[in-house]
Amino acid sequence: xSTETQALSIITADIGATVTHATLIERVEGTxxxxxxxxxxxxxxxxxxxxxxxxxxxxxxxxxxVQRRLLGDAGPLMPENATGEGVDLLVATCSAxxxxxxxxxxxxxxxxxxxxxxxxxxxxxxxxxxxxxxxxFHHWEEETLAELYRDPPEVLILVGGADAGSTTxxxxxxxxxxxxxxxxxxxRRPVVVFAGNLEARRPIMQLVSPVMELRVVDNVRPSIxxxxxxxxxxxxxxxxxxxxxxxxPGYERLAEWASAPIRPxxxxxxxxxxxxxxxxxxxxxxxxxxxxxxxxxAATARDQGHHWATCADTGTSYGLAGVLARVGVEGLxxxxxxxxxxxxxxxxxxxxxVRPRSVAGSGEELLLVHAALRESLTAAMGLLRQQHWGRxxxxxxxxxxxxxxxxxxxxxxxxNLSLVALSxxxxxxPVGLTRLVVDWAAVWPAxxxxxxxxxxxxxxxxEQDAFRDLGTVIAPRGTDEPGMPALQVAxxxxxxxxxxxxxxxxxxxxxxxxLGEEATxxxxxxxxxxxxxxxxxxxxxxxxRGGGLGIVIDARGRPLALPTDEREARRCMVEWLRSLEGDAxxx
Length: 587
What we know:
Layout: E1 9-15, E2 19-28, E3 31-41, H1 51-66, E4 71-72, E5 75-76, E6 89-94, E7 100-106, H2 112-121, E8 125-132, H3 142-150, E9 155-158, H4 168-181, E10 191-194, H5 201-208, E11 214-216, H6 230-244, H7 251-257, E12 263-264, H8 265-279, E13 286-291, E14 296-302, E15 305-311, H9 320-333, H10 342-354, H11 363-388, E16 403-407, H12 409-413, H13 417-428, E17 432-438, H14 444-450, H15 455-464, E18 468-475, E19 477-478, E20 485-493, E21 498-504, E22 508-511, E23 518-525, E24 529-530, E25 540-545, E26 551-554, H16 566-581
Parallel strand pairs: 1-6, 6-12, 7-8, 7-9, 9-10, 10-11, 13-16, 16-17, 18-26
Antiparallel strand pairs: 1-2, 2-3, 4-5, 13-14, 14-15, 17-18, 19-24, 20-21, 20-23, 22-26, 23-25
């Protein structure tokens, strides 16, 4: 189809490790609208394992919804014909490939190595090992060398040295690595990404290039006080796109179907997030979280800056083993409003890992999946805090954002909006006043790809159809004894109706305000709380918008501290769920 002709119909696809999501976008009375959505398992059991099979099933479901033919024997019918069959464009994002297994080799365990760690935290990689050589470059630990040879990484990142410094240490390290891998079969050798001393590029190329694929990017630490991560982050993303995604079964066929290059899900989501941040009023930017089956991401966009944190092997299906390794059964049990013993929790999680595409069949299973969602997201938020906000491990505060945008299979499939909101608030711990929205149709990443070829369609769908608005959250920083007065709240609707209440510390309160309805709210905190203004005990007034949950006032304090007593913790979880939905038993 000519790029000068506007598309009449578009299929978007986001192919995850567990589920493939598809949407149909059409021009309706001159405006692009999302008219249907569907999903199917990404792969099927049996001999045929091909991501286009799952996508094909999702497109067939779209056909059932819109009652017209979209799929032919060889793939989607393109372009749309005169009888209305087919579509004009298909765009796709994919996160079905496992993260790249990566090792960092650096001269010391600070500066360049820490910078490379931050770059990896923003990328679809699983950092398996960090090797710090110290000042004795001639002495590698034999166990380290044996491990690197026995189980070579897919990507080896070599960093170290300020620009214009000595190149000898880096040349020595490169020489050892070259000797280590030169007799290994070529297909098992890692790709080397050099992000160190600018002066060392030429000798490193001479040593490494004859043996391994070498990619050279800007020094992540050109001087002690300067950090430059962009080039390394982009190169790792490109490696994932070029080396990991093509290994997904059916990828070549999918590429033939697509009207634009297939992009990693995180890349498409990053484009959409930056657009959202520019459009949201307030100047504090947006925070996005994506809890997948295998990987969890957290990202921020504010002004011209944007940051990513990726927690590989941590999610709500394939990544459950990683969650258990991080926090254990006890870490998940603390989020449950009902008591489950450790053996039962472990059995249910094993079942979820074996059947990653199954839907939670009971209240207990749904609560357990949301416990895993909390811990997955807590891990990703922890990386974001450490790598980009300079927070220490124990500091769980999150800077104020105008918008928190959440996505993921569990988020989209949980019918209980109060449980979704509570899980997000528990893990993110936002401060101040923010809107909470979710990607109900799993369309945000694909819209980021669509923006490059049909920007009007991407913008119109994003603004009109892509959000499920849960409402506005007001969450102060600080703590006080449970039950003590925390906030005085007065809300005036457009109709003039006044609602006044006192919110106690340790509680969550929900004020009804319909979707699209606005009100003026005034909040006066006690001297132990800061409502996001940076001043304790100082109040403020703002215009707020309603949503599925209206206005949520979270006065449980920041950082959030669950009671140490198990019974009391479970009682609090029940009470918080009841406050958001009016159901004492939870979902």
